[in-house]
Design a protein that fits this description.
By secondary structure, the protein is an alpha/beta fold. The protein has 2 domains: 9-135 and 285-298, 3-Layer(aba) Sandwich (Rossmann fold); 149-277, 3-Layer(aba) Sandwich (Rossmann fold). It has helices spanning 14-31, 56-67, 88-96, 112-116, 135-146, 167-178, 194-200, 235-242, 269-272, 279-299, and strands spanning 45-50, 71-76, 102-107, 123-129, 156-160, 182-186, 203-205, 216-219, 254-256. The strands form 2 sheets. It has a 5-stranded parallel sheet, covered by helices on one side. The chain is globular, with a radius of gyration of 19 Å. Bound molecules: N-carbamoyl-L-aspartate. N-carbamoyl-L-aspartate binds at residues 56-57, 128, 134, 137, 167-168, 221, 223, 258-259.
Length: 309
């Protein structure tokens, strides 16, 4: 079934994920060309609306739209009327006057993407809503892993770190399970309450020693902006208990991190660029996977190419 919006990983069944991953693979060929553009979305408009800081997600969505020949309206809260206090509704309605076919939204409010579908005819992509979801990250991570494994069926993936504040953990745990992986969540008790395991259908452990059994170690940033000191006695203690470093990372294990990395905290500096680190590949995948997401939203379902949204 073609996607109408990409708001949560619940919108993604295995077949849809497979289709997006396969299309991203075909767009990877475009990235290798001299002229890196295809006309697929010529005449279409994509607005990106970012109320939270972002480097990778905002730049890759913008570039993805441009590589598909769409027109792009990039809006960052800092440089727009949003900074003057314009409400989300007014901003979305104003943007919608330009008739964008897609709005990519990052906001600190859980459910913001779902909410704006009421105020626009555009397809909405949730590019991160508070601590809740980040489905395009899940797709690019699955694409990245599929370059190394034919299938994720039965693969053991450990997600390690600040699970409580992480939208990536919430989306990825479920998306990896949809692809057949066995997911374990690991972190200090204050950053990993037991009910999160039940909610996400994953095993929970506070003991890092079992991580050597994992095929993939997916590390998370310590989200200082979303916590106060009561969550962690000290960074030094976190490092001793949970940092992934060359002692904890086996040569055959794959290492991932959504970025930005706090070097020396969740990862030691030497493992970031290790041969089995996929961190740079994740960034590369972000571009082609976001091209595939935009294509998926505009090429199928309600917004077929050639029709107006
Ligand atoms: C993540 C995010 O913003 O949710 N980063 C990203 O999109 N690449 C994770 C993070 O900020 O730690």
């Amino acid at each position: 079934m073609a996607l109408e919006h990409l708001l949560t990983v619940d919108d993604l069944d295995r077949e849809t994920i497979e289709r997006i991953v396969a299309r991203a693979g075909s767009f990877a060929e475009v990235s290798g060309r001299d002229i890196k553009k295809v006309p697929a979305l010529r005449g279409r408009t994509v607005a990106t609306l970012f109320y939270e800081n972002s480097t990778r997600t905002s730049s890759s969505f913008e570039l993805a739209a441009k590589r598909l020949s769409a027109d792009v309206i990039p809006i960052k809260a800092g440089g727009s009327s949003v900074a003057k206090g314009e409400s989300l509704e007014d901003t979305v309605r104003t943007l919608s006057a330009y008739g964008p076919e897609v709005i990519v939204l990052r906001a600190p409010w859980a459910g913001a993407g779902d909410m704006i579908t009421r105020w626009t005819d555009a397809a909405v992509v949730n590019a991160g809503d508070g601590k809740r979801e980040h489905p395009s990250q899940s797709l690019l991570d699955i694409y990245t892993l599929r370059r190394h494994f034919d299938s994720l069926e039965g693969k053991k993936i450990w997600i390690v770190g600040d699970i409580l504040h992480s939208r990536v953990a919430r989306s990825n745990a479920r998306a990896f399970r949809t692809m057949g992986a066995h997911v374990t969540l690991c972190g200090p008790p204050t950053l990993l309450p037991p009910q999160m395991g039940e909610a996400l259908g994953c095993e929970v452990t506070h003991d890092i020693t079992g991580v050597d059994d994992a095929d993939v170690i997916y590390t998370l940033r310590i989200q200082n902006e979303r916590m106060n000191e009561s969550f962690m006695p000290s960074l030094a203690e976190y490092v001793i208990g949970y940092q992934i470093n060359s002692k904890r990372l086996g040569a055959k294990q794959l290492l991932m991190h959504p970025g930005p990395v706090n070097r020396g905290v969740e990862l030691s500096a030497d493992v970031v660029g290790a041969p089995n680190s996929l961190i740079e590949q994740q960034v590369e995948s972000g571009l082609v996977v976001r091209m595939a997401i935009l294509y998926e939203l505009l090429a199928g379902g309600k917004r077929q190419m050639g029709e107006t949204a």
